[in-house]
Structure formats: C-alpha cells, structure tokens
Amino acid sequence: MPPSILQVALPSPLRRLFDYQAPADVAPEQLQIGQRVRVPFGRRALVGVIAGLSDQSKVPSDKLKAAEALLDRAPLLPPSLWQLCLWTARYYQHGLGDTLNVALPVLLRQGEAALARQDRLWQLLPGAYPEHPAIQRAPKQKLAVQTLAQHPHGLSHALISQWGLTRDALEALESKGLVERIEQSPHHIAEPLPLLRQAPLTANDEQQAALDAILGKSGFHAWLLEGVTGSGKTEVYLQAIEQCLRSGHQALVLIPEIGLTPQTLARFQQRFSAPVVILHSGLNDRERLDAWIAARDGDAGIVIGTRSAIFTPLARPGLIIVDEEHDLSYKQQEGLRYNARDLAVYRAHLEKVAIILGSATASLESLHNVEQGRYQLLRLTQRAGNAKPPSFQCLDIRSRPLEGGLSRPLTLLIGEHLSKGNQVLVFINRRGFAPTLMCHDCGWIAECKRCDARMTVHQSPAHLHCHHCNSQRPMDKHCPKCQGSDLRPLGAGTERTEEHLNACFPDFPVLRIDRESMSRKKAMQQMMETIQSAQPCILVGTQMLAKGHHFPDVTLVAILDADGGLFSADFRGPERMAQMITQVAGRAGRAEKPGQVIIQTHMAEHPLLIELTEQGYPAIAKRELAERAVAQLPPYRFMALLRAEANNGRAANQFLEEALQQAELLVEQHQLAEVDLLGPVPSPMERRAGRFRAQLLMQAAQRSTLHQLVHLLLPLLEQHPDARKVRWSIDIDPLDM
Ligand code: ADP
Ligand code: ZN
Ligand code: ZN
C-alpha cells in the first residue's frame, strides 16, 4: 500500500512539518506531494501543503488526526516552482509552511480552487441519480445530485453557492465517481497573429550585440546587462521577449516598483498583442489568483511583477528578466527575508532558461559574479538615439545660506532652465517638511517616544511623524524643557522644498513626488501628464523619482544633499550613494536636449564625489569591489545576521549572548573553518517602536559552512526558554545591517 501519512507544511513560524492521516474519503494512491489539504490545528482548520508522504509517524497513531479534505487533484505547483520553494526555505532557513505562505496567492492559502473562475463546471456522470445508494445518508450530496440533474450542460463553480451547494459535497461526489469537474480553460487561444502590435526599434550596434549573445544561447545562461541610463536596456528586453514568445514560451519580468513606472508597463503592452499580466498592488485577491492561474496555465505570454512575482508559476518558461537588479526592494526585509533577484537566478537555472539582470548601476554582488564567470557581462555604453550623457558638477554650499534646502546659485540655475522652456528635477531624500523640530532657546529636539529617532515635521496637516514606527502626534507649541515658544523646523524635506520653489517660481507648476503625495490617487497620473505635456515645470521628490522613469524634457537634475551617504557607517554606503546619484542623474537629458546634474555638498573635495563625477559608477564599483576583497566583506565573505528584539532592554542581548555561546560550541564541535562571530551589538537604531534591538553577525569564507552553522543553531534557538519573550529572526545575505 502506498504511504498514507501526510507530512504537511502549515503556515506556522516553526521550522517543521506536521503529520496527519489522509482524509477519510481519499485513497492513498490519490495523494501526491504538493497537493493542498485542509487540516484541524488546535481549534482551527488550516490549509497546508503535503510536503512528504510516509508510512510511519513519531506521533502515536491514536493521536494522529486525520486531514479534513484534499483540496487539489494534482500538485498545485509545477515541479520547478515546487523545487524553488523548497530551496528558498532551505537557503533562507525558513519554515516551508511559511515560505509557501509567502509564495502563494492569498486565496490559494485559504483553500480556493486553483482553477480559473469561469473554467470550472460541475457535471453529473452517467449512473448518478438522486436515489443512488452511496448518497442516501449524505443530504448535501443528494441535493447536489438533484441540482446538477437540472443542469445537463454543467453548473459553473461560481454559482454553486447560489444553489445551496458546497464544494465539499461536490468533491465528495467526485471522489465517489458520480460527478466530474470539467477544467478546460477557455482562454487557450492560438498564438495571436501578428505577435507584435508595434514594430521594434532598429537596435543599435551595442543592443544588437547584446541580443545576438542572448539569443545565441539556449538553456540556462545568466547575463548582466550593464547599460548606462537611457541606453535602451528596455528595448533589449522587449526584443528578447519577442523571440521568447515566438518560440512559444512565456517571459517573467521583475521590476522594483509597479505604481511608479507606468511608462515602462505601457511599452510592454503597446509592443505585444500577447496577453500581458501585471501583478500590481491594485488587484483584489480574486484578480491576483486569476492572474496567477493565467500564468501557470500558459495563457499569459508575459508576466510582470515586483519581488513576490518570482513565485509565479509558468507553464512554458522561456526567459526571466530582472530590471534594475541592484534595487533594494528585491530584498524582503521581514518574515521570509528572500532576495528575489537571487531566487530569479536559481529559478532560471531550475527551468533551464536565460536570465537577464539589467542595471545602469549593477550591484557589487552581480559584478563579482561576472568576475567569477557565473554571469556574462553585456555592455551598453552609449545612450540610445541622439541623447548624450549628462554633465556633472558639485556645488560647494559651505557657508552659503540654504532656503528650502536650496542655495542661491542653484535657485538661479533652476530659473534659467525653466525660462528656456525645460523641466527641472530636484531630488531630496527626505519626506516631510523638515527632519527636526528644535527649540531655539534651549536646543531641545522633538524625539520619538518609542524610537531612538527624531520626529519629522509635516505640514498640511501640521504634525510630528516618526518614519520608523509611524507614530504621530500634534506639533508641540511650547518646548517641554524650557517652556519657550520659539520652536523651529530645522533642515528641509520635500514639503519645504516644494513650498520654497512655489514661492520662487509662482508661474511654473511644482510637482511633489514622495510617498505621501503618491498615496493620493491620480497624483501619479497627473504628474505623468504634466511631464509628458513637455511644459516647463519642477519635479521635487525622493528616490521614487530615481526609478526607471523616462523624462525626456528634464534638462537639470539637482541633488540637494549628497553628504548623508558620505558618512554612512554601513560598508555598503558608498555603493548605495553612487547608485542613487547615478540613477537620479540618469533622468537628465534623456532625449534631444543635453542634461546637467548639480550636486550640492559641503564636501566638494570628497574623493568619492570626485570619482563619481569624473569617472562614473563603473570606476567606483571596481574600486569598491577591490576594497571589499581586501577587507573580506561581501561578496567575498558570506553573512547571516541573527536579530533579536524585546521589550526589556537586556533580554535581547542576553538571548544573543547565549546564541553566541551555542554558535561557538557548534563551530568547535563541527570544526567549522573560517567563521567569525561578531557581537552581539545593539542594532543601528537600538530602540524602535518601543522595543530594544540587538544583533549577532555570523560570517564565513564558505557559504556552505555558514549554512551548516545556521542550520545547526536555529533548532537550538527555537527550544530556548526565552524564545517566546524575545522576537528573533535570521537574515541570510542581509543587505541592511
Ligand atoms: P534604459 O532602459 O536603458 O534606461 P530605455 O530603453 O528606456 O533605456 O531607452 C531610452 C530611450 O531611448 C527611450 O526613449 C527609447 O525609446 C529610446 N531608444 C532605445 N533604443 C533605441 C534605438 N535602438 N533607436 C532609437 N531609440 C531608442
Ligand atoms: Zn527649549
Ligand atoms: Zn518612532
């Protein structure tokens, strides 16, 4: 007899599977790994996925509960996606149940059938009739048979509840061989002809060389497409996708943020007549599931989404693209801390397809992979069409007064560009009106009561807001320390810069683009319309502005404060800053008009700024990589970060001290070579949202050693008596430390 004990992955933080007996009405040969089941769990019922089948369990058989229902006839995911999920759980040292919980659309997690909405019909099989002996003691099944008898052409699944039927009853009938479920997909239309709605651009020599290389190889191959901003990477993606579709395959495209790049999406939709599925946050759960099903069943030619779209199954995978591969949003920073870019490479390997990682400012990790021969480099060094690269200039603002964050010379320059009929982009990486509220009499500063952080001043409506824990409070009217009433906002954020620019340039529209302004519906669309109208205007915004936009009429990009990045304590600070400035600068002069980039700084002779403005990002990346090699930092070293936080200041530290001791023991017992354990130390912001946070860094020269250590350590931590008082997590390949 085939094994009938189910090892079920359940949505639980615990890194283990749970044993159940098969549901009473399911024969063992119907069971397969990857099917969903509904199981009793405590007082609830949970939906889980069968991750293993066995004929024995450590749980005594009288204690072993039976699953309530088998929810899928076949495994939910294609084999490659199942493998990807298993690998994700293993690599990020996360429970499989919770990993699947991240990977699957919410309705599937709740037990919804993994079938397209209109596609399911229930139909009686010959030999089914209301008096059938097998259903005389099951009134719901009897009702179902009576109802279906009135629907000779089948009853749509979407309508069963209107007829008082339940899926469970129908599925029970199905397993008794009295009812069948018809699952053909009506969307299976032949490949539309012609494939293209719009002719491709004529590729320039560099684009053609990249395409020849990519299309010349079959099977798994990882390409790093390093193309300066405006060099036509998107055109390379589009033409590679075209060939992918022509060969009858599907393409998966990951982008950092969807709401921000309507133009890019429009280019995909305008180019192809194949169905493009976009997984954006505006979809409701049902739409999301339908999109997922269209991808899995091969009905969607192109699937575009953010980070989590990496888990979308494809019936006929042909190509994966990760645009702006350096972008930090590919890394999930809580729960399952995966990096979608890295998973994409592994997925391409599993599915034996090509992957293109594109960026103007490639991550050092990817450049290192090129050095190691794992990825192959393709370069686009020239801007496409007639566009020229922008010119860079640092503007020394030492002892110059700033208004709204702008120096006088910069304000004048903005006026010049506007008067020539051009658009200007002002970049300031701080939301709100001002980063601090200060008492002019005694120097008191408004701080968050729950974090080691200052409150940001916001206007309209006026209030103080902590950007770390989201707590808000009314603006102080008097200083709580000296009772003085001269409280002043210090420094500038986007709102203040906007206000100042409005006052200076009353005749020109000033558009603010940050998380607050963009949360208003239509704001993005309005912004896009103004930008496309080509009328002179000023865009003020945070890094949202830096992401992949194409602003053809922007001729001046002003970066108001570059100094923050120069002081960063994080070893990735210089890489990040160079990426950000290069990306923002890349919005200038993307069409016929030449672009100018101004960087306001107090440290105009800082070597990093000089290097950036004179030699550009590639030179910085190369030098930084060499320095990382010497300092033995990632990507030359592998890191895992154990974080802990607790209400009690000492508990987190204590927990990590014990973790450290256990890790040291494991290193000794298992003779793990070249491992460093650093810490515990307080986290960069020790108190956040009322909790005290600390971290222990584990480093190793070999990835496998590090994984072995973490793998041995985590079960010990799960059993730790304080594991409930302390909230802890493991972050493999942390980006944020
Ligand atoms: P990137 O993605 O590298 O920033 P884009 O693909 O957005 O660059 O291209 C920048 C601009 O150049 C776009 O307006 C695009 O239409 C144009 N472009 C790209 N490739 C070509 C080409 N081969 N011929 C003419 N224009 C091109
Ligand atoms: Zn005061
Ligand atoms: Zn706070």
- Apparent shape: globular
Query: Spatial order of the strands in the main sheet?
Result: 11-12-10-13-14-9-15
Helix content: 25-40%
Low-confidence stretches: 186-192
Number of strands: 32
- Whole-angstrom Rg: 29 Å
Describe it.
The strands form 8 sheets. The chain has a 7-stranded parallel sheet, with helices on both faces. It has a 6-stranded parallel sheet with strand order 16-28-27-19-26-25, with helices on both faces. Helix 1 crosses helix 2 (96-103) and helix 4 crosses helix 5. With 737 residues, it is an alpha/beta fold. The chain contains 21 helices and 32 strands. Residues 448, 450-451, 453, 466, 468-469, 471 line the site of one zinc ion.
Detail the topology: elements first, then pairings.
Elements: E1 5-9, E2 18-21, E3 36-41, E4 44-54, E5 69-70, H1 79-91, H2 96-103, H3 106-109, E6 121-124, H4 139-149, E7 155-156, H5 167-175, E8 179-182, H6 205-215, E9 221-227, H7 233-246, E10 250-254, H8 262-271, E11 276-279, H9 285-296, E12 302-305, E13 317-322, H10 340-351, E14 354-359, H11 364-371, E15 376-380, E16 391-396, E17 402-403, E18 406-407, H12 408-419, E19 423-427, E20 436-439, E21 456-458, E22 463-465, E23 472-473, E24 487-490, H13 494-504, E25 510-513, H14 515-519, H15 523-532, E26 538-541, E27 554-559, H16 563-566, H17 573-585, E28 596-601, H18 607-615, H19 617-631, E29 638-646, H20 649-669, E30 675-688, E31 691-700, H21 703-718, E32 727-732
The structure holds adenosine-5'-diphosphate and zinc ion (ZN) (2 copies).
Residues 448, 450-451, 453, 466, 468-469, 471 line the site of one zinc ion.
